[in-house]
Amino acid sequence: MHKFDKEFDEFFENPDIKKLLEENDVGEDSLIALKNEEERLWDVERYKVFYQSIIENPQIFAGKVVLVLRPGLGLPVIWAAKAGAERVICADDTKLIDFVRELVKKENLNNVDCIYTGTSNLLLGKDMVDVIISDWIGYFGVNQKFIYELIRIRDMCLKKDGVVLPDKIVFSAGFFSDEEQLMTNFGFWDKVYDYQMPVMKNACFLEAVYERVTPKSIVTAPKILWTFNLAPDAPEDEYVNLDNLSFNKKIILSPNANVVTINELVPGKITAIFVT
């Protein structure tokens, strides 16, 4: 078992952590945030990458000022502090920040500042931060415009020789077909107490849904949409800022070996476009 897997299991089996989760009321305004955190936490492979990037690279964090944007339930905050950061600042505009505050207190981490604020109101001095961590970007950077948020904060307070985690983002897209997921996410609205609610169903189709996509359900070869280099020292032709950031791109998706006939690519059979 990898050290991360052991620590991850111990984190959620810890009775103190369970007590914190039960006692901290996140409030109605943060229920969606809590649900998103639940989905993200079980993306173990992604969290393992962040764990290794932080814990196994103490030379990046030792004696540094680290900013964690939207820390969720606080795992990246703990790791940064344990990697030797002199100061860790974490900011979020949901009540989950109260849980993080209690968690760092339990872990006796006296070098962590938890700030309850939206990032648009987060005022930090120029060249104040050595490292920025945004594990939301590692999840899906376009959602809720988090990539804009990260770039703005980077340009405002990150040192020229600073580090962004992750510093490179690759977005790819394709079609996947899974009738079970289709019914779970959208079929509910076909019969709500014997009434059809197509308006609600159509509205749900416009919202992003986080799902684990199995290789078997992918029916087109994925295509890369965009590659963004967020490192402050990125080459000029790769450097991304708010002025040159663009999401306009057309791609052609072709059926892969999972599709027996082209007739399978018809409305009602395709569940959704996936973007990673």
Detailed description of the structure:
There is one protein chain. The chain has 276 residues and is of the alpha/beta class. The protein has a domain at 3-166: Vaccinia Virus protein VP39 (Rossmann fold). The chain has helices spanning 3-13, 15-23, 31-41, 44-55, 58-61, 75-82, 96-106, 137-140, 146-157, 179-185, 198-205; strands spanning 65-69, 87-92, 112-116, 129-133, 158-165, 168-176, 223-229, 272-275. It has a 5-stranded parallel beta sheet, with helices on both faces. The longest helix is centred in the N-terminal third of the chain and has 12 residues, at 44-55. It starts with a helix and ends with a strand. Mean pLDDT is 77; it is low at 25-29 and 260-272.
Relevant terms:
three-stranded antiparallel sheet, Rossmann fold, 11 helices
Blueprint of the fold:
Blueprint: H1 3-13, H2 15-23, H3 31-41, H4 44-55, H5 58-61, E1 65-69, H6 75-82, E2 87-92, H7 96-106, E3 112-116, E4 129-133, H8 137-140, H9 146-157, E5 158-165, E6 168-176, H10 179-185, H11 198-205, E7 223-229, E8 272-275
Parallel strand pairs: 1-2, 1-4, 2-3, 4-5
Antiparallel strand pairs: 6-7, 6-8
Helix pairs in contact: 2-7, 4-6
